[in-house]
Amino acid sequence: MTERQPGPERPEKDRPWLMRTYAGHSTAEASNELYRRNLAKGQTGLSVAFDLPTQTGYDCDHILARGEVGRVGVPVAHLGDMRRLFQDIPLEQMNTSMTINATAMWLLALYQVVAEEQGVDITRLQGTTQNDIVKEYLSRGTHVFPPVPSLRLTTDMICYTVNNIPKWNPINICSYHLQEAGATPVQEIAYAMSTAIAVLDAVFASGQIAEDRKGDVVARISFFVNAGVRFIEEMCKMRAFSRIWDTVTRERYGIENPKQRRFRYGVQVNSLGLTEAQPENNVQRIVLEMLAVTLSKDARARAVQLPAWNEALGLPRPWDQQWSLRIQQVLAHESDLLEYEDIFAGSYVIEEKVTSLVKESLAEMDRIEEMGGAMAAVESGYLKAQLVSSHAERRGRIESGQEKIVGVNIFETTEPNPLTADLDTAIMTVDPQVEARAIRAIEEWRTTRQESSDRQGEGDPFHFPTVAQTLERLKEAAAGAENLMDATLECVRAGVTTGEWAGALREVFGEFRAPTGVSSAPIAVPVEEGSALAGVRLKVERTARELNAGKLRFLVGKPGLDGHSNGAEQIAVRARDAGFEVVYQGIRLTPAQIVDAAIAEDVHAVGLSILSGSHAQLVPDVLVRLREAGAGDIPVIAGGIIPNADAEQLRAAGVAAVFTPKDFDITGIIGRIVDEIRTANQLDPLEVPA
Length: 690
Hints:
Blueprint: E1 18-20, E2 22-23, H1 28-40, E3 46-49, H2 52-56, H3 79-85, E4 95-99, H4 104-117, E5 126-129, H5 134-140, H6 147-164, E6 168-169, E7 171-174, H7 176-180, H8 185-205, H9 214-219, E8 221-227, H10 231-251, E9 265-269, H11 282-292, E10 303-305, H12 318-333, H13 348-370, H14 374-379, H15 382-400, H16 433-448, H17 467-479, H18 485-494, H19 498-509, H20 532-546, E11 553-557, H21 566-577, E12 581-584, H22 591-600, E13 605-610, H23 615-628, E14 636-640, H24 644-653, E15 657-659, H25 666-680
């Protein structure tokens, strides 16, 4: 009998990527409970979502914070909140990602002080602060300061962490939101890489990094990307990212160590592509998008977080987040994915696509370099206009049926969905009393924090400065050239609030309103004879004549702190193309400012776009103010992520129409707005054949 020969040894499996869920809501206590539950379920890293007041540097009692507290993330107003957020979570053992940008330095300082209070050696802290302000000007809208001082905050923070918290990733160059704002793969690569170049140039020019530590800086730069449903293209995009980063770091910055040149990235798969219609289809979309960043070993993500199937409906519940975590765990622990080398190596199809992406991305990077770099391209409005244009083209393809979305513009028939049979329980809602309690809590914090020398034990005021002294110290540092991190840490320890820290810097740096990109965006949907848009244009022109107006005037408003302006921009561009005179002043407006603009511009309709959940407070406020101003006959249209029950309440309050993500036909929406203008002005219904 022939002796059986042993087979080849089973290869050693790769370690799974960090598994996260993006989470935070209501209060620090509630979010802490959620984090500890998720960690117990096998999550291997934390990903903290902060609410909009925290992201934009306002305390919860500021007028702009109304309706926003605790909705899209956890509110952190001071050191006490940060302590409660991480109570009973050993930070020395954590890898914590914080999605925070304009106020990133402040949140890192809070995190460091809490770690110190836990007795942690800060050199052992591991995690990431997003800290990419460029994409905030372009897509997500949580910027505070102008580009130059914002870049200084980023630079100071990178230099501080490299020298003091060496395992921390101080910046996560974030192309994720660029794709959500319409970026093509080439734009996503080029804009992210141009941002990284601007940041590294600023860091090395600051004089805070020794020449022999340049490689350490490059090694701590990480990226946060988006993965869409075209997963072959997305996987090739990641290989192109890696190839360009290797070239830039070697040729521009002289980094010889290949480990330091490695392209390190985390990913959240595409929330933009999640649909309100037939939301169960989002599960297979999420799986395909995850494969784009896990299948290829040579371009595999270091950390992955997946959205929940129902995010287009509202805030996911803990069970929904668990489902997304289990998707990752099944792939990592049940499949054989981690047992093999790169399965795409040698594929001429993949190589051809990667080469094409690299070539086109480098060409766009050269264009940005000729403009003076990423910051100059932001200030000129070039980058924003390109994104608005790309997004408009994508919306046009969806409306025409050229780009197919199952359940939206193809295969729309469906059986009753048991997952959404009761929409009011299919998502999590934030207790409306959260905001009132947060306001009371911060008032108590301000009155009880110790402004004297015994705040941190025995000592004199020189060693333990008061809140006022630390804020003055911060302003002096901001007006000079020293690294701002030390002054920020002093503010944390003194009990300064988020709004006070940002307010002090606003006094020195000023604020910034980013270009909207609407006026310069080209026409994306041609007005061809017999087309739907041509029909709407006829309605607009005839209605304007009947009202003796040169043009119909439409105000598009973004009340509150929600900076996701993609939808508002697309409505504004299409209304412009349909013949409206559009008034769009960008993001972060109070209801009073919106009403003042509506009266001053004598508009025929007001459109309000809110995705953060603050519609229940802010939209009725606009209605009341219009009535008080004697303009209650102006129709108000609301759009955003608005649950059915809330939509009914808004209509009962006087809103003329409510649109949500399922209403993808933008031309049809503009036509409905014309109809509401006619109704409000007692004009006969007008049917214009499309």
